[in-house]
Queue: 2 jobs
Job 1
Amino acid sequence: MENIRAFLKRKDVIISAHRYGIDAMGAMAQGLFASLLIGTIIKTLGQQTGIAFLVTAGGYAAAVAGPAMAASIGYALHAPQLVLFSLIAVGGAANELGGAGGPLAVYLIAIAAAEIGKLVSKETKVDILVTPAVTILVGVGLSALCAPAIGAAASAVGSVIMWATELQPLLMGILVSVLVGMALTLPISSAAICAALGLTGLAGGAAVAGCCAQMVGFAVMSYKENGIGGLVSQGLGTSMLQMPNILRNPRTWIPPTLAAAITGPIATCLFHLEMNGPAVSSGMGTCGLVGQIGVYTGWVESGKVITAFDWAGMVLVCFILPAVLSVIFCEVLRKKGWIKEGDLKL
């Protein structure tokens, strides 16, 4: 047993929730952003401006989502070069065979292929043949065996959530908004979760609302402590910056979470805000305005007639209500002494 542990340590194979649940998943979200998400944005820009080159470029970027996710995961797992490059083929296979649940298939299979590839890396004199062959054969083999089932399971879970949100927009609007919003602030990837589940439609709209509530809420209610820099870094970056403060005083998390519980059902019940762009956009909130661009992309691609009511709903749910509600709740907690001066300082 000691020999096995020493071998795994030498190969940097660390079986832990942090390595797989945070590092790998966060990297997967970046891979999705650098391919499918930015590709969709570029393509939409090209469609709206009539620039064919942008449409073509965006299409190429979106087409390599699987390889980009797998390579990103391999990078996060410190895969050697031959393993890392071989994961490109693995990601393509897993994403294609996984269907609607492709991102989850890529996530699970890329981790397995990367770790096994690391185990054989530089262990033979013909490493240039053995390492890529093992990584690709393991990854593509697992894709053929497991990806369709993984994809079907993820798609089924996402479909149930979306069906339940259509059926009970008030209750599910609250649950989806709060849970996905909290996932965005936690050191895990809400974007990857939404992508893996294919979370779109009303449920996607609720997810956008929850993520915006966390980002805009923390940005505005901590303005006294952090100024314009904190406003931008949290409002257009990530509310994850507040995690150290949340660990020190969990009550600081109450205002944006309550705001999410309100804006979620407003999005689903009043404005019928739907995310019909890329599912990954559902978990991005106001990060680079990706959530809002995703909603707009969905409007355009579905041929929806965009009204002033639609724009008003997006602005209220994504910006105005999270800011106002979070500040109100925060001031109440400050008066109660639950949140003190400096508790939100980055």
Job 2
Amino acid sequence: MKNPDSSHSPERLLSLDFFRGATMFLLIAEFTHFFTFLHDPALEGSFIYVIAEQFQHHPWNGLRFWDLIQPYFMFIVGVAMPYSLSNRKKRGQSRSQITRHAFQRAFILLFLGWALHCIGSGKIVFQFQNVLAQLSVTYILAFLIMNKPAKVQILFSVLLIALTEIIYRGFPVEGFNHPFVANENFGTWLDLQYGGANLRGHWVSFNAIPTTAHTIWGVLAGQLLMSKRTAVQKLKILIIAGVIGVVVGYGLNPVTPIIKRISTSSFVIVSGGWTLLTLAFSYWLIDMKKRQKWSLFFRVVGLNPLFIYLFAHVGGAVLIESVIHPFTFLLFGWMGTLTATILTSAIVLFLLWYITHWFHKNKIYIRI
């Protein structure tokens, strides 16, 4: 299988590989519960506890770093789409072949997202709130308009956000006409209609509609980075767009609260701003300043993102933890249960990373 590493390809965007890899590294860290253990009440008041709190989703109205991970993922997929489309055209694929592949990929993502909910529940359920199920929708909608002018793509993304705002605020069903109250909004009502409501976590499937903006904005960023503009011009546009998103998003909070769990308009805009700024920083550091060697640690994770996510999600992290747990507690148990647990989790995370490193070293890349 062809090596997708960009080390020798001037056309490949190393900053995107780094951004994707760092995001996936954090996602698989979730399955090791590393940050959860650091957020232990026993550490409350410490600097570690304060930092670890940023790696927990905000309970409702507010924004923490961890709330940006899913927007990052959806945005990154968008950035990669113009590069993927260009490569497929170079290989001689027709528009119909590319479109067919896009729909197949969206279906597989939807199926995997649904299947992961079933595996996690231990029974057949119809829930579509996880990142893969959501991405299946945002990906295909962004794909269908990615050949349109930038203004059309921006307008479409804004219309999706505005439509969501209008539906939530104007939804008339009694008991679900409180747009920004947990489990009393349109999103929850919609999921209840087919038995897929997530009442405990307050997540809703309809999030896929407004967060399509993240993937569309990613496509626009990818098209910008592939353009003939100078690197400085590209960086300026990313920064300006990012700052506008952050300012507007936070500015809307008094009117429309920033709520990640139902992807309010303010959340979509502010998180979109942060994704643009993060890409700008990565592009400046890695592609412009050429600080690249150290980034390989994260890039190897980003070269097999779907595999390592699924592997960790379906029990890979638990399996590794069950194998090493006796040994880590034998070696570190004297330091206390919490410390030994945190160290065990860190080792599991390292071993998950090492799997991606081994795959890269042996040129094994799993794609859909």
